[in-house]
Specification:
Chain lengths: ~110, ~120
Amino acid sequence: RKEVEQDPGPFNVPEGATVAFNCTYSNSASQSFFWYRQDCRKEPKLLMSVYSSGNEDGRFTAQLNRASQYISLLIRDSKLSDSATYLCVVNTGFQKLVFGTGTRLLVSP
Amino acid sequence: DTEVTQTPKHLVMGMTNKKSLKCEQHMGHRAMYWYKQKAKKPPELMFVYSYEKLSINESVPSRFSPECPNSSLLNLHLHALQPEDSALYLCASSQGLSGVTNEKLFFGSGTQLSVL
């Protein structure tokens, strides 16, 4: 089993739609969790950290479920500019951050 | 705009060449990383330096040799690479503070390497 797993997609949604991604991790001792966004041929950029209490940043909401070992990302009112690959990142201990395979999102007009 | 600077942006080298990738950050971060990313794959961790000492080596072949001359600089020396080593090489940094578990990575824009 991979350390961090995501559905690769692509998720094709129209503008204005709500879309959700999940990510599962295998190491129950994992300490911190993040969502990164990566555009084609660009470096990953931090989208948001994921906290146990859940957190929201504008149209983006992240949730962590430690019991089931998954994190989620919800995007409301999708924009064309949201089209990208969304990478789930898990800190499995002492600066070892492991990336999921990424979920590709395509938002169409 | 990234505060982690990588050079060169593109590199083409033969299998007998020796080249180096460079990375620089001025955010005062004490941890620096090298990741390798193949097309349509996630970044894979290669090396981590913490306070200028190598702390993680993910069983990377010896043809890749990292170096951390000081807290702001990270190099990756390349020698006798294979065509399958062609990839995007990403440098990243994080605060690297002891006991902090919520480390965020800040990436450079990467070096696209092609080995012929």
